[in-house]
Amino acid sequence: MTTPTTDTDTGAAPATGRRAWIREHSELGVCVLLLALGILLLTDALTMDVDIAQRGPVGPRTVPVVVGTGLLVVAALLAVDVLRGGRGRAETGEDVDLSEPADWRTVSLLTGVFLGAAVLIEPLGFPIAGALLFWGAAFALGSRRADRDPLMAAVVSFLTYAVFNNLLGVPLPGGPLMGVL
Amino acid sequence: MNALNSLMDGFGTALTPLNLLWAALGVLLGTAIGVLPGIGPAMAVALLLPVTYGLDPTGAFIMFAGIYYGAMFGGSTTSILLNTPGESAAVVAAMEGNPMAKSGRGAQALAAAAIGHFAGGMIGTVLLVALAPTIADLAVDIGAPDYFAIMVLAFIAVTSVLGSSRIRGMASLLIGLTIGLVGLDQMTGQQRLTFGSLQLADGIDVVIVAVGLFAIGEALWVAAHLRRRPPDPIPVGRPWLGRADLRRTWKSWARGPFIGFPFGAIPAGGAEIPTFLSYVTEKRLSKHRDEWGKGAIEGVAGPESAASASAAGTLVSMLTLGLPTTAVAAVMLAAFQQYGIQPGPLLFEREPDLVWGLIASLFVGMVLLLALNLPLAPVWAKLLRIPRPYLYAGIMFFAAVGAYAVGGEAIDLVLLLIIGLIGFGMRRYGLPVLPAVIGVILGPAAEQQLRRALQISDGSVTGLVDTPFSVTVYAVVVLVLGWPLVRRALPRKSART
Lengths: 181, 497
What we know:
The complex is a heterodimer.
Chain A: H1 17-24, H2 28-46, H3 62-83, H4 104-124, H5 126-140, H6 148-167, H7 175-180
Helix pairs in contact in A: 2-3, 4-5, 5-6
Chain B: H1 2-14, H2 17-35, H3 41-48, H4 57-82, H5 88-139, H6 144-160, H7 166-181, E1 183-184, E2 191-192, H8 198-201, H9 206-224, H10 243-265, H11 272-285, H12 298-321, H13 327-338, H14 347-350, H15 352-383, H16 388-407, H17 411-428, H18 434-456, H19 468-489
Helix pairs in contact in B: 1-15, 2-4, 2-15, 3-4, 3-9, 3-13, 4-5, 4-12, 4-15, 5-10, 5-11, 5-12, 5-15, 6-7, 6-18, 6-19, 7-18, 9-16, 9-17, 10-11, 10-12, 11-12, 13-18
């Protein structure tokens, strides 16, 4: 999973004008993010109140300043590289098909399901929230077996709960359901 | 022969029934997860971290070692039977292994890979036993400036040697270093990047970063580009080798480790380069050159043996210097930190039971792997048919288990998702993930060593280069950095890709 070997831009439709240019150069967004991260880091470091805490010649400020500066430099270098036609290569994998454009619906559904599970894990407990996460994720990924999917999710989640909580000694919240059982 | 005695003690530790069970469990889990398409060794180890939270460190690392070797073996099964290698180390196995499987010699390809792994792992581990204590002895009185130099080398190597773009590697490293800075400063207690949040004051747990980048990032990335129809695995029977095949492969098995081991020990990308080198070597030495590209068995045997030995080489640097040279080693280092153990030259003195138990269990694990994998290969092959929605839903699910188990807080899941989305973006724009993980893991330690070194020298920068060891390491750093310039000066052979 660490071999970037294929170019992504192959799937981009040939459009004209400004939008096409932006699509071609969407990697500049990475530069903007790196720049923002660098500024954030430098602001945080420079507004630090270090006089009381300083011990030794190098305080808590030095490394953040170095890393922040590095981020600014890399953002600039990356921008230059992108404008000169350099492109980061999207990663390939066993189940990755780069010939089609990214499926944002699936990604946002998965993100939503995961966030939902994070919210539900404390009130509902792990077995239920975990089962919902598994079912929801399988649904988002295109599984539509209304009979098998929930059953599968429930089995995986309850088994995992039992193995971790009771066998391996890793506590997970049981929630109201486990209180009843 | 002090090492031999320690190793015998190690076998005493590794062969207790409970530890034997952990080793077997690790090998089985590792192989199963490694066979699953889309999951490489690093993600396997990251996803299985929570399984070991309840164990004592020795049991946990014995299990990890099993997972590591098992996952590497499983990965080559995938590439032989599916021909869509996801991991760099398994690319070479597919080049000859898949044509073999297609022409009905899948069983022989799997056997050549399994025995190759066994041979490579055995020879590699013997080299580990022979070299590691010596390196640890040599390194035992290295100080803060030397540690800092090693970490700088790790940072530079991981951004320069791996991947196609140095700028993107550097960007990834800096993202990791930034994540590592979040929390209270270790030396002064100063809050950094916490924005007043108590949650962030504890820092972001390395496990959450590793699971987020490796598992969630990967699952989201695959989800965005999921193949509509997954490739069909080639059916295969029980692996076996005929006499003619054995005669062709035994030399390849024996050669592989000596290519793989040294590359594993240096920060040069783990198994990627040595498997390729071994492939080229075997091709040149082969008497059946016409078969290459159509399924030459040496092309499976040699590289697989090299890959396995490189894993042993990786352990040398990680155990003796605390230097992770591959993604798996980085995750294992994170696991060490979870237990409050700092790998490094003192590890052999302070935790002899753990280290030698771990090394002995490598031998045990290797035997278990060979014994399990030959008969179980058809079962493993069935795993390749798992419906993809379940596979990636399962990855998300177990990632959530792992992140939640770290601290029992739901907010960690949100953090995991955010880091996963960063991992997704990194995959989209070709930022390698490994430098970020190394940055998170080694960043805080590097800062501490830097400040300690400068404290000793009273702020003078010469304090960083006042030992022969650190000077040597910096010389290597300069060499790594300067190499492209040197190469550019030489006559150009092929166009830039």
